[in-house]
Write a structure and sequence with these properties.
Length: about 375
Amino acid sequence: MTQEKFQELTIAVLSATATDTEIAMHKKLVETEGWAKDLFESLCNTHNLLTKTIGKLEEQIAIAPPSPEKLALIFQLIDQQAPLRGSASADKAIYANLVKQIKKLPTLPIILDAISKALKDEHANVVHIEELLSGDQSLTTTVLRMANSARYGLPRRVYSLHQAVSLMGFDEIQQLVLTASVISFMDKSTTLFSLNNFWRHSIGVATATCSVAKEIGISDDYILYTTALLHDIGKVGNLLLDTKGYLEIIQQSLNTHMALDEIEREQVFPEHCRMGEAICDHWGLPSMISLAVRYHHEPDIQKRPKLPDEAHRAIDCINIADTLVREYQFGHSGNDAPPELDQGIIDRLELHPIRLELLRNNIRADIEHTHGLLDLLPVQVA
């Protein structure tokens, strides 16, 4: 039996779809052939990582394990990947090159930029935004679904974009378009798993970051929301480049409760913060976004490079939002370290105990408000 046929047989065994005859044949090969035993152990390791580790990021797998066809595709993908361990480097060019190796990394949707510019225009009106949205049927459907969801609790059904935009407001529309666009176009790259729980965490952090910003008097919610939504995008990049290798890193965090970024450095694996920065640079996003993505796990301002004050504030806002969202267990990003607020950030943002408790309550209410957002987003955005 060839290794390819043995892998197909193993997938059937692991998926509980093999016949008694196939199970007996598989057992005999594992017991008598050294290569079969080694390959079986490797496939079992991959299968366990997919069902346990991805299950934390993609809620459905815990209920419905991957089909044999899906497992075969994932195993094939992993066989084609080069392990990333040992490839991490302080050289920015190394990360830029890694991003270029992500074969299915798409570009940001054109409509996202168009709507962002329109919403910043002081002369923008509902009709202009309606015209932009109407050119994308999937986004139109999403906006109408949102307007008619329990999130808004409107007394009557909304049938037109004009009504929806008028009722939801420009800020809400902008965040919705950004969220729907980023999640759907990234999910096109990760067709083997949807990372539902990962995106739930990202949406939670984006929402919580705006709550922190509002509390300390920062008004540029769009940039902060964008940055927070993308703060862990480097993890998606690592999964696309070395699925098995990065799942092992995530599983180690789940087993030891050690911070994911610490394990990455210890294992000489590309740091997701650096990978995220490189992805943002590749997309041509503003430097403040890429810098905040890179340093969102660095609470010590002395260990950050010289940055504009607004960048430091953005990093602080995202750091505290990320910690509180993990504390509330809203989604799961793969980082299972105990959430602990940094006192330095609390002091810099002047969040005295009463103010911090108020912020906690606001964030808890805000992320509950967004709880159903992921379920309302389209599977694909054209």
